[in-house]
Amino acid sequence: MISPSGLLRRLGKITREHEQDGERGDVPGWVLITLMTAGLVIIIWGLAGPALSGVFEQAIERVTGF
Fold first, then answer.
1. How would DSSP label each residue in 1-66?
2. 0.70 cut: is pTM over it?
3. Dihedral (CA of 6, 7, 13, 16) sign
4. Spatial distance between the Cα atoms of 47 and 58, rounded to a whole number of angstroms
5. What is the rounded average pLDDT of the residues 38-50?
């Protein structure tokens, strides 16, 4: 698993490589997409988390019940 600091270094290296090529990305756009995705995951997890937990517990009970 990559540590957060390692991930940031890797992203910085990729960004610098692209800037050297003369191509600049739409950083605010990627930040917005990342934040929106994180928000959707949190909302979906909040709504579906208890149901998924129940399904998982039932599956484990059925497997260990034999």
1. ---HHHHHHHHHHHHHHHHHTT----HHHHHHHHHHHHHHHHHHHHHHHHHHHHHHHHHHHHHHT-
2. no
3. negative
4. 19
5. 93
